[in-house]
Amino acid sequence: xxxxxxxxxxxxxxxxxxxAAGSCSAWDVVEILRKRRADVHDLQxxxxxxxxxxxxxxxxxxxxHFRITGVGLKVxxxxxxxxxxxxxxxxxxxxxAGVAAIEATVELIDPDGKTSGRFPCELAIPASVAAADAAxxxxxxxxxxxx
Length: 147
Known about the structure:
By secondary structure, the protein is of the alpha+beta class. It has one domain: K homology (KH) domain (GMP Synthetase, Chain A, domain 3), CATH 3.30.300. It has helices spanning 13-35, 75-89, 91-96, 127-136; strands spanning 39-51, 59-71, 101-109, 119-120.
C-alpha cells in the first residue's frame, strides 16, 4: 500500500557482502585445516564493519573473528591459517581490502568449552614467511612462525 513502510525481511546487499567475506574465508580455513588433518569440531565466523556515514556508505574497516573448536589445535597455527585465507585465497576479502582495512582475530575453544581468548592475526606477511606458506599448507609440522 502507498506510504506503508515495512521492516526488512532479509539481508541487505551490503550485509550479504559481509556474509560472503565470512563464508569465503571460513571455507578456506576449513579446507586448509582439513589438509593439515586437524581435528576441528566447529567453526564460527562473525563479521563486523564500519561504513562511511554518507552515500555510498563505503566500508572502511572489516573485522572477522574466527571461533574454532577442536582438539590438539594451537592458536599460532590457527592464526596463520586465517592469515593465509585472508591475504591469499579469499577473493571476496581481497576485493574488499582494496578500500577497507581488514582485521582478524582467532579464538580457540577446547572440547570442554575453555577459551583461549581472542588473539589478533597478523595479516602482513614477512617475505621470509610468505615464501614458506605455500609449501607449509597441508604439512603436519609447524612452520617457523608457529612456535
